[in-house]
Write a structure and sequence with these properties.
The protein has 2 domains: 4-207, DHBP synthase (Alpha-Beta Complex); 230-334, Rossmann fold (3-Layer(aba) Sandwich). The two termini are 31 Å apart. Strand 11, helix 8 (197-200) and strand 12 form a beta-alpha-beta unit. The protein has 10 helices and 16 strands. The strands form 2 sheets. Strands 1, 2, 3, 4, 5, 6, 7, 8, 9, 10, 11 and 12 form a 12-stranded mixed β-sheet that branches. Helices cover 27% and strands 20% of the residues.
Length: 336
């Protein structure tokens, strides 16, 4: 199979109607889309991604009318659920609700819940409205790898495995949607993302606790990982490398001299000839802007992963707002 990169949206709809899988842009990352109501077609997503069947998929709805067709919302939580989706749909916000029988078990990994959202991306929105049915659309990469934020990233991951990638340029947010579950009037954040804890806390009490089993996408301890080992650190100025090692830096702090973190701190002892220099550096945001950092995160990890390295070190970003979601992705990438 030859994989085509195209801007032909009508051709994408035609492929979806024929039961094929197509990579589509969203406001978060590129997704691998298929008819969510056809279990045979959804199986193609798992095959192309080499995704384990225990990991559920997010279902994208054409419009809000599909909410009650796909899910059951308890009366005690309906008001809160409606407030959340009134505020955050369409957008990078996914909510986990009890599923109806119309949702195939393969989509939910056998769970009695389904994760759903409505994308705000203009191209995705046009295609799903023309298709007229919900689309399952996890990130368009092989399982556990760095999520794709450009059409070329998808091609690098899935060339020959899918027929088409719809190119709409880089994705705006650069990290996957926030996922929540609403239970007994509380908002449980299952995956951090562009919609922050601070934004959600306006609507109710927040819970952030790791469930005993996977309830939503992106909860695997090892995820979003480059092939190069990655280590998460607090300050690159204090990190030492050996002359024989090729180490690159994904930087947040800007206290660098000549492009390398060699100024300020030198903790080497006499006779220690280790170097402080990195063979490559990517600055997540020159403006120290967390939204810019999130948009750059996966792209820069991919670039560094192609530099023939022994190690990538990444500085933690501030644990506030969107920074919590960035650190979550880095922690899972480093877990490998």
């Amino acid at each position: 199979m030859n994989t085509e990169i195209s801007t032909d949206r009508a051709a994408a709809v035609e492929l979806l109607e024929r039961g094929e899988i197509v990579a589509l842009p969203t406001e978060t990352v590129y997704g691998l889309a298929a008819n969510a109501l056809n279990p045979v077609v959804v199986a193609k997503i798992f095959e192309a991604k080499e995704r384990p069947r225990f990991d559920p998929l997010i279902v994208h709805l054409p419009d809000r009318d599909w909410l009650d067709r796909m899910t059951e919302v308890p009366d005690e939580d309906r008001q809160l659920v409606e407030k959340l989706i009134d505020r955050f749909w369409p957008g990078p916000f996914t909510i986990v609700l009890s599923r109806k029988s119309i949702v195939p078990e393969i989509v939910t990994a056998g769970l009695d819940t389904v994760a759903i959202r409505i994308s705000v991306h203009a191209v995705f929105s046009e295609i799903i409205h023309e298709f007229g049915k919900p689309l399952a659309a996890p990130s368009a990469n092989r399982f556990g790898r760095i999520s794709p934020t450009t059409a070329q990233h998808v091609l690098n991951e899935l060339d020959g495995r899918i027929p088409m990638i719809v190119d709409a340029g880089p994705t705006p947010h650069g990290i996957e949607s926030t996922i929540v579950a609403v239970r007994h009037g509380k908002i449980n954040i299952l995956r951090r993302g562009p919609i922050t804890e601070e934004e959600l806390s306006i609507f109710g009490k927040i819970e952030i606790r790791a469930p005993s089993k996977i309830l939503a996408p992106g909860q695997s301890p090892t995820h979003y990982a480059p092939t190069t080992p990655l280590r998460l650190i607090d300050d690159a100025d204090l990190f030492l490398t050996r002359p024989s090692e090729r180490v690159a830096l994904l930087a947040w702090k800007k206290s660098r001299s000549g492009g390398f973190p060699s100024a300020g701190f030198d903790t080497r002892q006499p006779g220690d000839h280790r170097s402080l220099k990195f063979v490559a550096i990517r600055q997540l945001s020159e403006k120290q802007d967390l939204r810019e950092a999130a948009a750059n995160l996966f792209r820069y990890l991919r670039e560094l992963d192609q530099c023939d390295l022994d190690l990538i070190v990444a500085e933690r970003v501030p644990e506030e707002g969107l920074g919590a979601a960035i650190n979550d992705r880095l922690l899972r990438a480093a877990a490998k």
